[in-house]
Write a structure and sequence with these properties.
The relative contact order is 0.05. The radius of gyration is 80 Å and the shape is rod-shaped. It is mainly alpha-helical and 218 residues long. It has eight helices and no strands. The longest helix has 20 residues. The protein has three domains: 82 residues; 30 residues, no CATH class; 47 residues.
């Protein structure tokens, strides 16, 4: 019938759908001639798919329906794979080789070398004796030698100083004015003794006092 005639063509159906319908139709009609079935199968395929299968290097035999069905499926699967978008492959990372810093020269230590061990001096150093006499010895020798040569400023005698002099009157300790007053007083006493007619013995006492004064003034 016309309905059966239209079932031999693929049309907009996929290859798998066309193969399924063709197998059912062959089963219901009871076709057994493989050569005639191959012709019907190729006539129902789309022209582009039919041409691709026929022009392959290993084309199946014209009396082997199963070989043609397998060949058509391989071509259809290859076309479907080509239509799928190619997955985006990430760009390979470009690794920049890192330059390591130059290695520092290694130092080698001689652990067997023995360092000198410092020796501590526990004994104290003896005191240094200076050459010649000590300062205190010089003072003592000088003081012993010079005591006998000391002259008193008060009595002009040696062996003691004016501080330890037994003389009560020290003319050197007087100022110039005191010495003038003393001189005037002595002269006034002298005039008084002369006017009063003193004895000759008193004159000798005045002379002796003047001599003592002269000695103390030296």
């Amino acid at each position: 019938t016309q309905l059966e005639e239209s079932l031999w063509y693929q049309g907009p159906d996929s290859v798998d759908e066309y193969i399924g319908c063709f197998r059912e139709l062959v089963f219901h009609l009871g076709y057994v001639d493989n050569a005639n079935l191959v012709v019907k199968f190729n006539e129902g395929l789309n022209k582009s798919l039919q041409t691709t299968v026929v022009t392959t290097d290993q084309a199946p035999a014209f009396d082997n329906l199963e070989a043609w069905i397998e060949a058509v499926q391989r071509v259809a699967d290859a076309r479907e794979m080509s239509k799928k978008p190619v997955p985006h492959r990430p760009k390979p990372f470009t690794t920049i080789p890192r330059r390591l810093p130059p290695a520092l020269p290694t130092r080698t230590f001689n652990y067997q070398a023995q360092l000198p061990i410092p020796v501590l001096n526990t004994s104290p150093e003896p005191p240094k004796i200076p050459d010649g006499p000590m300062p205190m010895d010089v003072d003592r020798t000088c003081s012993k030698a010079s005591i006998s040569n000391i002259v008193c400023r008060c009595c002009n005698k040696t062996g003691h100083i004016a501080k330890f002099c037994n003389t009560t009157f020290n003319i050197r300790s007087l100022t110039v004015e005191e010495k003038e007053e003393l001189l005037y007083g002595l002269m006034a006493d002298l005039d008084m003794t002369e006017n009063s007619g003193a004895k000759p013995g008193s004159e000798e006492e005045i002379i002796s006092e003047q001599e003592d004064f002269a000695k103390c003034d030296k």
